[in-house]
Every structure is written in structure tokens, then in C-alpha cells.
């Protein structure tokens, strides 16, 4: 082989590698969901799908990348499953998956057609709803979704959620065993149960996003991989359930929130709040996509908590500056959000808006009520919000104590650096009359 | 069809303090439940109410002691053994099961026939 021939072959190999990696990111859920139907066992399905991706590296280098990679991979994984079943009859009984025979096709069900004309039905919704079944603990739902729907390895998920790999492996195994032992059916919930069941799915995706948006600890503010996984999951869900307003709401919320990513820290990684951000750095395209989704989901009638949160994010995104934000509209949206989703976190955010419409003292009164309530005892944004209001009122000593209280409750380095900066500011001697620098 | 146990955990004080009217109401609720199970396409295979934990005797490693294993506010007070298609079906039925002083737990029955 000539030198240029070798170089071309190497370039081909890396192009094939990229195509397989791309198919892994895009098609894992489709291939696994369809394979699980044949294996009727989640572990066996995972193994067969892994093997199919490995086989794709060689096969695609020889035959070229197939027209429909998902269908190719599914056919390959299913062949492996059938081979394994022939060799080992016990494969079936390890983690038997309950697939109701009368599983009715949903309107969202679509299908892929392979190069050989085989039609493979789209079982991704079944997979997602099984991973997020309310009989599973929230942390198990999150782990299963990342593992089975996104195709992340146990090591990757463990790293994202700051637990050891054996701990995460045990969590995933326990959850799979429960699916099989308690007979959690591999199906899409019926109309009547859909609102609750869908809420669990949306909560899991939102949790993946927030874990990435503000990493619970560590040196960086954002874990981009998790943020992108969450957005990809929301995109997938929207593609599968285009008529669910809360699904559009969630995707809109994630897009608009993530659009600020580049503006959320300065060049040295320091945290910048909404009023300090350079709005020209916001991702205009993402905001536009998000806003279109918000408009659609608000039009649907009774908007839910994700659509309303998205609408709030959209109002912020429309303001040319912090001062020019439409605070009265935000307050009205927060009131609707409180009705749709009564939660102390919403109340706290509403208080911050109240400060802009009625002044910091009114907001401090709201926050005092929340402090007594006690549900936000471990939530560092409560003392942080209080500190900021006290700072604006010039009550520096109290502000400093509140910043210190917030510092006690967060382990994210970017947030800690920000709070330490404010504490130093509040401690500095100034000649403001009537203020003692404690 | 698979089998599930619906375990009824309740605060015993509810019955101790409630008097005969409570017993009567709860008895009616359970008779109503038995009817609903059939309508839901399931079947009650067995079940009973248990005497209060004050009558319990625990045996652990051959040591016999008075009382239940764990003193908790809510105690196992009764159970049903039902048949259901899957967990969602079992949950649907368990939601109908009366437990005014507590709640219920659904547990799949382990198939030990091959053991």
C-alpha cells in the first residue's frame, strides 16, 4: 500500500469511528429499546447492543456506513440476541422483562426501515417510561435513564454523580432486578396515568440538566456533558411526544437556560449573576428555539410547571438589560407557577422578583416566612438571596452573616469563590454612615 | 398473571381509640374493596387481619421474646394476596385497599417452585 493509500485508509478508519460514535450518541436508545423486545432481558439486550456497535466498526469500514445506522445496528444486535438464545436457553431468565402482548401502539410510535426492508418499531418511549417508573427511587431512575437511554457507562454516571463505580453499579443492578421481580411492564402508560408518569420522566431529565448546570461540587460551574445529555433527552422526548405541552416546555426551559452558559462565568471561571452577565454572549439561536417552544406550550391551555418556568426564562431572555426586565410580567408568571406547582423554591424565586417590583424589604419579609417554614434549611440560595437583599439595603453586617450561611451550604467552587468575594466586600471598611463593618 | 401481597401498615391506636364504629366502617370498606378487585380484573387469593402487635411473639435464633421485631408507629395489621398482570395493575388495586390509619405496601411474591 502506498503512503497516500495508508493515509487514506487511516482517514477512512477515523471517519468510520466518528460515524459509529455518532450513531452511539443518536441511536443507542432506539437500538436498545428494540433489542430488549427480542431478548426480553435488559442485561442481555445491553450486551448484544454493545457487540453490535463493535461489529459496526469493521462492517462499516468494509461496506460503508449504512443508509439507516439505527436499523443496521438493531438488526445486528437482534441477530446476536437470537444466536445467544440458541446457545444458552437460560439467557432469557436472568432479568425477564415483561412485555405486554396487547401493548397498544401509541400515536407517537414510529418505525425505522432497515436496508433489507425490515420494519423495526420505535420502542424508545417504552424504555424511557420503564426507566422512570415511580416504583423506582429517583436516583435509580436517573441512573437507569443515563445508562439505558443515553448509553453511558456505569463509570461515567458514577463520575457525574460523585459516587464510586461499585456504588453506581449496585444501584443500576438493584433497579434492573426490581423491574424484573416486581414486573414493571415495558409499556407506555395509558392516558389516565400519563400526567403523573410523564412528570417523573420530565423530572429526571430536569435533574440531569440541573446537576450539569450547577455541578454539586468540584472546580467547574457547568458539567457540559450532562447538560448536553439532558437537552438531547428532552429533544428525543419532544420528537416522540410532540403534542405534550410540558415536554415542549421542558425543552424550551433547558434551551433558554443553557443559552446563557458562555455568559455565566468570566474569563477566569468566576460566577456572574444575571445582572452582571454580558447579554451579547447569550446564544441567540438557542433562545429563539426555546422561545418558539414556550409560545407553543403556553397556547395549549393550562400550562404546567415546566412551561411556566420556560416562560419565566423567556421573559429574562427578552430583556435588553437586567434593569429593563419586565418584572411585573415575571411576578404574574410566578403567581401562576405557584398555583401549578406550590413549592418553597418557587416562593423564594418569586421573592427575588418582588424585590424588583416592591423593593428589597418586601422580599425580605417573604424570605423571613420561608425561613420559619424550614423546608429550605439546606438550600444555599435562600441565605444567598437574603444576603443580596440586605446588601442592597446597606445592612452590611447582616448581609455578611447571610453570605457566610450560604457558603456553609455549597460545595461548588465557582459559587464558593463568588460568595467569598461578597463576604470580603461586606467586611471591607467603608465610610457609609451608620454602618459598622463587623 | 403474577401474585402480589398487599401489606397493610397502620397505626394500631386508630383502632384502639376508634371504638366499634371504626371497626364497622373499616369492615364495610374491606367488603367494598373485595368487590372492586374483581371489577379490576384481579382476584383475591387470600388474606386476613392480624391481631395487634401486643399479641406478637418474636423468635430470632431460637430466642423467644415478647413483641414484634421493630417497634414502629405503623405496624403490619393485615394483608391480601392478589393476582395482577403487572406492577401497575397491582398498584391500581392496592390504591383501593382501605388503610385509613396508615398505608399499604405492594410486594411481588417470589416464585420458589424451582428452588
Describe the 3D structure:
The complex is a heterodimer of chains A (438) and B (115). Chain A is an all-alpha fold and 438 residues long. Chain A folds into four domains: 93 residues, Orthogonal Bundle (Rna Polymerase Sigma Factor, Chain: A); 112 residues, no CATH class; 94 residues, no CATH class; 88 residues, Serine Threonine Protein Phosphatase 5, Tetratricopeptide repeat (Alpha Horseshoe). Chain A has a two-stranded antiparallel sheet. Chain A has a two-stranded parallel ribbon with strand order 3-4. In chain A, a hairpin with a 5-residue loop joins β1 and β2. The N and C termini of chain A lie far apart (78 Å). In chain B, the strands form two sheets. Chain B has a four-stranded antiparallel beta sheet. In chain B, strands 3-4 form a two-stranded antiparallel sheet. The mean pLDDT of chain B is 91. The interface between A and B is small, with 11 and 9 residues.
Assembly status: heterodimer
Structural domain count of chain A:
4
Biggest sheet overview of chain A: 2 strands, antiparallel
Low-confidence stretches of chain B: none
In DSSP terms (H or I, runs of 4 or more residues), the helix count of chain A works out at 18
Structural class estimated from helices and strands of chain A: mainly alpha
CATH class of chain B: Alpha Beta
**Strand content range of chain B:** 35-45%
Amino acid at each position: 500500500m502506498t503512503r497516500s493509500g495508508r493515509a487514506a485508509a487511516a482517514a477512512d478508519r477515523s471517519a468510520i469511528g466518528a460515524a459509529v460514535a455518532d450513531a452511539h450518541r443518536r441511536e443507542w436508545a432506539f437500538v436498545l429499546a428494540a433489542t430488549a423486545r427480542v431478548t426480553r432481558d435488559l442485561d442481555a439486550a445491553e450486551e448484544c447492543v454493545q457487540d453490535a456497535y463493535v461489529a459496526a466498526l469493521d462492517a462499516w469500514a468494509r461496506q460503508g456506513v449504512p443508509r439507516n445506522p439505527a436499523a443496521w445496528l438493531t438488526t445486528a444486535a437482534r441477530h446476536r440476541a437470537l444466536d445467544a438464545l440458541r446457545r444458552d436457553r437460560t439467557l432469557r431468565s436472568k432479568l425477564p422483562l415483561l412485555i405486554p402482548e396487547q401493548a397498544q401502539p401509541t400515536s407517537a410510535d414510529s418505525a425505522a426501515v432497515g436496508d433489507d426492508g425490515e420494519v423495526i418499531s420505535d420502542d424508545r418511549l417504552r424504555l424511557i417510561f420503564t426507566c422512570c417508573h415511580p416504583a423506582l427511587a429517583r436516583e435509580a431512575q436517573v441512573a437507569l435513564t443515563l445508562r439505558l437511554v443515553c448509553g453511558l457507562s456505569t463509570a461515567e454516571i458514577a463520575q457525574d454523580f460523585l459516587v464510586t463505580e461499585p456504588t453506581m453499579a449496585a444501584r443500576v443492578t438493584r433497579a434492573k432486578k426490581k423491574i424484573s421481580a416486581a414486573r414493571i411492564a415495558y409499556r407506555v402508560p395509558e392516558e389516565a396515568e400519563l400526567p403523573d408518569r410523564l412528570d417523573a420522566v420530565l423530572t429526571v431529565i430536569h435533574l440531569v440538566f440541573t446537576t450539569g448546570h450547577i455541578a454539586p461540587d468540584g472546580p467547574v460551574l457547568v458539567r457540559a456533558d450532562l447538560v448536553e445529555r439532558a437537552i438531547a433527552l428532552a429533544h428525543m422526548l419532544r420528537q416522540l411526544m410532540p403534542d405534550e405541552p410540558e415536554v415542549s416546555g421542558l425543552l424550551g426551559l433547558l434551551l433558554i437556560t443553557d443559552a446563557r452558559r458562555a455568559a455565566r462565568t468570566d474569563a477566569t471561571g468566576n460566577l456572574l449573576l444575571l445582572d452582571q452577565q454580558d447579554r451579547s454572549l447569550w446564544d441567540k439561536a438557542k433562545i429563539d428555539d426555546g422561545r418558539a417552544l414556550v409560545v407553543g406550550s403556553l397556547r395549549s391551555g393550562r400550562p404546567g410547571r415546566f412551561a411556566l418556568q420556560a416562560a419565566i426564562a423567556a421573559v429574562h431572555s427578552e430583556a435588553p438589560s437586567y434593569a429593563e426586565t419586565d418584572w411585573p410580567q415575571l411576578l404574574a408568571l410566578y403567581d401562576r407557577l405557584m398555583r401549578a406547582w406550590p413549592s418553597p423554591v418557587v416562593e423564594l424565586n418569586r421573592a427575588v422578583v418582588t424585590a424588583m417590583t416592591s423593593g428589597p424589604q418586601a422580599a425580605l419579609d417573604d424570605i423571613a416566612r420561608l425561613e420559619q417554614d424550614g423546608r429550605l434549611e439546606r438550600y444555599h440560595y435562600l441565605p444567598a438571596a437574603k444576603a443580596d437583599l440586605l446588601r442592597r439595603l446597606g445592612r452590611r453586617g447582616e448581609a455578611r452573616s447571610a453570605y457566610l450561611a450560604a457558603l456553609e451550604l455549597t460545595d461548588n467552587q465557582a459559587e464558593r469563590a463568588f460568595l467569598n468575594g461578597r463576604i470580603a466586600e461586606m467586611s471591607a471598611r467603608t465610610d457609609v454612615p451608620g454602618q459598622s463593618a463587623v | 398473571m403474577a401474585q402480589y401481597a398487599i401489606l397493610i401498615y397502620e397505626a394500631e391506636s386508630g383502632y384502639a381509640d376508634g371504638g366499634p364504629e371504626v371497626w364497622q366502617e373499616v369492615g364495610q370498606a374491606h367488603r367494598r374493596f373485595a368487590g372492586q378487585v374483581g371489577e379490576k380484573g384481579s382476584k383475591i387469593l387470600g388474606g386476613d387481619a392480624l391481631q395487634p402487635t401486643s399479641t406478637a411473639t418474636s423468635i430470632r435464633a431460637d430466642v423467644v421474646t415478647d413483641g414484634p421485631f421493630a417497634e414502629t408507629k405503623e405496624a403490619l395489621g393485615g394483608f391480601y394476596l392478589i393476582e395482577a398482570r403487572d406492577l401497575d395493575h397491582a398498584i391500581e388495586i392496592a390504591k383501593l385497599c382501605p388503610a385509613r390509619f396508615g398505608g399499604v405496601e405492594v410486594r411481588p411474591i417470589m416464585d420458589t417452585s424451582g428452588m
